[in-house]
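Record minuted for completeness.

…
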Amino acid sequence: MLVLLLLTTAASAAERLPIKVGKNKSSQIKYFDPNDPPADMPSLQPPEAAVTVSAFSCSAQMRVIILEQNTVNGICHARARIETVDISLGLNITIWLPNNPSRKLRVHEDGHKKISEHYFDFGKETAERLAQPYVGKEISGQGADCTKAIDDGIKASIKELAGKYMTEIEMRSGEAQNVFDELTDHGRNDVKEADAIQQSIDRAGSPGKSG
């Protein structure tokens, strides 16, 4: 899930850390009747008997210093420099289990949860690394209102940053999840989940490194 938080602009930036990253993680287990699954439950794809949904998110605010503003023929031309980047990272995990699930099924779905949490653990360092090139970056734009003349540039920077984060964290986690199901045959074979988790992570690779 990609979440974009709209920008804030300021003529001057107060003393603050150039990059700030906050994280929030939550998880829950929901049970369902296989013969009458709830409407909000994702569809199971055979041979699935349960499903774990991991929703990653990345939102950001960027504060800027206005370097130049000129109004010509009613159009404001502005140039600004990004001073701070404030990032919020999230992970919400929902495990859907049938009523009275077997221990094997519980352990398998918990394996999916652990894989997501493993990649989320890289979230802060990954976001800080990806945000670094934006601090001090100059952006420009034009519009009828000087206070909004550079909005598009800031929005584009936020979208680009969030997209890079989701590629390194969410997509890589998804790759590992697919390998995990492949190795365990969706929890139906005798492969130990702990071994499959490690092999899946090794094959998908870690953020900032080749897989």
Observations:
- Helices lie at 103-120, 123-131, 151-184, 193-204.
- Confidence is low (pLDDT under 50) at residues 1-14.
